[in-house]
Amino acid sequence: MNKKTLQRQQHLFSRPDKQLDYLSNGIFAPGKLPSFSEQISRCQQHPLQTKQLEILQLNLGYKCNQVCAHCHVDAGPDRKEMMSRKTLEQALQWIEKASIKKVDLTGGAPEMHPDFRWFVSQAKALGVEDLMVRSNLTILVAHQKYADLPSFFKANDIHVISSLPFYKKEKTDRQRGDGVFAQSIKALKALNTQGYGKADSGLLLDLVYNPAGAFLPGNQTALQQDFKKALWKDYQIEFNNLFTITNLPISRFLDYLIASENYERYMTALVDAFNPAALSGLMCTNTLSVRWDGSLYDCDFNQMLDLKIQRPNPTLAALLPEDLEQRTIAVHQHCYGCTAGAGSSCQGSLT
Amino acid sequence: MTSYYNPQDLKKFKQISDWNPELGTKFFDYYNRVFEEGALSAREKSLIALAVAHTIQCPYCIDAYTQDGLQRGIEKEEMMEALHVAGAIRGGASLVHGVQMMNLHDKLSM
Q1: Along chain A (351 residues), what's the average pLDDT of each consecutive run of 10 residues?
Q2: Is the peptide bond before A249 cis (omega within 30 degrees of 0)?
Q3: Distances from the Cα of A69 to the Cαs of A250, A254, B63, B102, in angstroms?
């Protein structure tokens, strides 16, 4: 596995415009497969509109202790982008003004942000009810300074959402790097020790499954049963829900699809599996994604493709929550990932 | 036609109904019902389908049920064991006829 980010390699796909070019041509050239806009026009859903804002998702930065093969963020240890204290303060003002009850912290590894703990405490003090942290798990056991995070999570009633692509070592390590599975198990045990994932503890520990390759996720309920059974049998680990997430053709996963000659097959499978019933639940309809520099997006995937929200000067500093109501969502071919089969979102399948 | 088998044709499977909608519909209703969760789990049925696919050496079915297995989180070790079941039955079917050979051989021999 390449340990350098695409940005560090100066790879063509470290540039969003190059990714969008690729996704606009080839099998999506005029007269071939329908673009996502064309597809939703056919079912009278174009343009996609936002609903009431419920979730503020803050991408605290692209720095991460891992370099996963499928990462749509192109995160890694060499990334320097980091949300400033000023932008974090603006986010807190937003949370207060819009009475946002659900905040979702992602990255990179959000825990590596120097103001992570400060921000969590401030957000909780403002009355955020569901404060989600998307943890890669290994960060919890990566260094002594992170070792008390499980107890910090508990003290702040954080909802932990953790990536674990499979309940066995081989597939997990192939996607996320050697040794990741063993470290993830260690971290999950530490979270269980605090009460996370245990029935009636009130401390939520959800896992995120995404396929380790060029195929769609299977049925979420069935996979959750398999995960629960296997993790309990092999490691006595408990968790609450499994969210299945489809890999979207962005950044490293796009690069992988092309390099492994799976791109056409995978994208065709996504288009064939287009499910109009998934449209109404798409996360972009009730989520706002904030980049490290305060730029605003309809979702984290749009953030990586730099498809900003359709408003003039789309930043946290320039806009108020009410400025964002009833806006049109920016879409492109990657959106097929969230509408395939049972649908996909940061909270798992949609239908 | 450049090849008897074209991977794109798998997606056109449903088109067999075009020339006989009644039987085509009945077949696909039956097919879908067969693979539903029942006394056997959908996961177990997927592995049986994979083994049968190799027994009848159908490239479309191998394509479909390898992918189906991956989506269900079936592991490659499970897939290969299923194939060995197919291989054992297939090989055994040849060898068990050896009893016919032996019977006839002995009957005809002095």
Answers
A1: 87 97 95 95 93 96 95 96 98 95 97 98 97 97 95 98 90 86 96 96 96 93 95 97 96 97 96 95 96 98 97 94 92 97 86 82
A2: no
A3: 12, 10, 24, 58
Decide if A222 and B71 are in contact by the 8 Å CB cutoff. no
User: What is residue A170's predicted lDDT score, i.e. its pLDDT?
Assistant: 86
Distances (CA, A) of A4 to A9, A98, A179, A247: 7, 39, 17, 20
ipTM of the shown complex: 0.80
* Contact flag B71-A272 (C-beta cutoff 8 Å): no
Q: Does A299 reside within a domain?
A: yes
Tokens encoding A283: 């996360």
Chain B CA closest to residue A213: B70
Mean pLDDT by 10 residues, chain B (110 residues): 85 95 98 96 97 97 97 96 98 97 95
**In this predicted structure, what is the pLDDT of residue A1?**
58
Q: What is the pLDDT of residue A257?
A: 97
Q: Establish if A346 belongs to a structural domain.
A: no
What residue of A is the nearest CA neighbor of B8?
A265
- Alpha-carbon Rg for chain A, nearest whole angstrom, is 19
pTM: 0.91
Check A222 against B43: CB less than 8 A apart: yes
CATH code, A78: 3.20.20
- Please check whether residue A272 touches B, CB under 8 A: yes
Does a structural domain hold residue A69? yes
CB contact (8 A) between residue B70 and residue A219: no
> Is residue A174 one of the residues assigned to a domain?
yes
Report domain extents, chain B. 13-108
Query: Is B89 touching A (CB cutoff 8 A)?
Result: no
Interface A-B: count of C-beta contacts within 8 A: 24
Residue among A216, A218, A272 minimizing CB distance to B73: A218
Q: What is the 3-state secondary structure (H, E, C) of chain B?
A: CCCCCCHHHHHHHHHHHHHCHHHHHHHHHHHHHHCCCCCCCHHHHHHHHHHHHHHCCCHHHHHHHHHHHHHHCCCHHHHHHHHHHHHHHHHHHHHHCHHHHHHHHHHHCC
Residue A2's pLDDT is: 65
Q: Does A215 contact B70 at a Cβ distance shorter than 8 Å? A: yes
Cβ–Cβ < 8 Å for A205, A240 = yes
Is A226 in Cβ contact with B70 (below 8 Å)?
no
Instruction: Write the secondary structure of A249-261 as one string of H (helix), E (strand) and C (coil).
Output: CCHHHHHHHHHCC
CATH class of the domain comprising B13-108: mainly alpha
